[in-house]
Amino acid sequence: MKEGYELVYKRPSTLTDRRMSYCPGCFHSTIHKFMMEIVEEMDIQDKTVGVCPVGCSVFAYNYLDIDMQEAAHGRAAAVATGIKRVLPDRIVFSYQGDGDLAAIGTAETLHACNRGENFTFIFINNGIYGMTGGQMAPTTLDGQITSTCPYGRDVETAGMPMKMAEIISSFEKVSYVERVSCNTPANARKAKRAIRKAFEYQMEGMGTTFIEVAANCPSNWKLTPEESLKWLEEKVYPYYPLGVFRDVKKLKKEE
After folding, report:
1. What is the DSSP letter of 100?
2. How far is CA 163 from CA 9, 167, 238, 250, in A?
3. What span, in angstroms and rounded, lies between the C-alpha atoms of 110 and 251?
4. Using CA atoms, how far apart are residues 163 and 37, in angstroms rounded to an integer?
5. Is the pLDDT of residue 254 over 80?
6. What's the CA gap between 97 and 176, in Å, rounded?
7. What are 152-201's pLDDT values in tens digits?
8. What is the mean pLDDT of residues 74-83?
9. Which of 55, 121, 210, 224 is 20 to 30 A away from residue 199, measured at CA?
10. What is the DSSP letter of 240?
């Protein structure tokens, strides 16, 4: 650091020192930074295990300096379950996209939540298959154009976009569910607090925790990063509202 300058921020030691390959404006890099800041602040680097399947999430192996385990497409919840049961003292999380968690891995996701497996889901929902060509996902909005629905999603034939946070919050053994985003500094701070709370609940043995990130995909949405943030505010948040959907600690206080 140059003389006369004040250090106001530095890269967390738990984040590898390499250039990220994500598209400009993508939220993956921001969430990576928050997760590794939390791991460093909580001093749990040697106790944390991440599970990433196929999709843009697979690049996390290059950037998160913690123990990582790859899973087949859609099977992260099953792998995370096995790791947590064998090593219950570890802080385990899955890092998944919507094409993975809400499509190919729907059964694994729902049954892990129904059982209350004591690990954390980090769910990046950008409403599209980001890595494999921008195909329609279960979370694609009504009328949204993708490579496999060039005239827009038709809910009469494809069904309604799946609201995973709302679905997951219905399971009794799930302890904490929140949908967050990173479009503004204020929302970004809320996202970091939500991830930290999810890890804390897991450390207390409270069952499944689920953080959904309402995210963008500028490249496959065919928008600039700035335009993608406007799309989030105008189109995504009205259908996928941000906020807490389940918090057992608050529920107990209200009883």
Report:
1. I
2. 36, 6, 12, 22
3. 22
4. 28
5. no
6. 19
7. 999 999 999 999 999 999 999 999 999 999 999 999 999 999 999 999 99
8. 97
9. 55
10. S
Contact 22/28 with Cβ under 8 angstroms?
yes
Q: Distance (Å, rounded) from C-alpha 19 to C-alpha 182? A: 20
* Residues ≥6 apart with Cβ < 8 Å to 139: 98, 102, 125, 127, 161, 162, 164, 240
Q: Residue 206 corresponds to which tokens in the numbers above?
A: 């409270």
For the chain, which residues make up each domain, given as ranges? 28-249
**Are the CB atoms for 99 and 121 separated by under 8 Å?**
no
Fold observed for domain 28-249:
Rossmann fold (3.40.50)
Pair of tokens at residue 165: 């946070």
Residues 6+ positions from 156 with CB-CB distance below 8 Å = none
Confidence (pLDDT) at 167? 98
- CA-CA distance, 151 to 5, in Å (whole number)? 54
| Structure confidence at residue 255 (pLDDT) | 66
Q: pLDDT tens digit string along 190-224?
A: 999 999 999 999 999 999 999 999 999 999 999 99
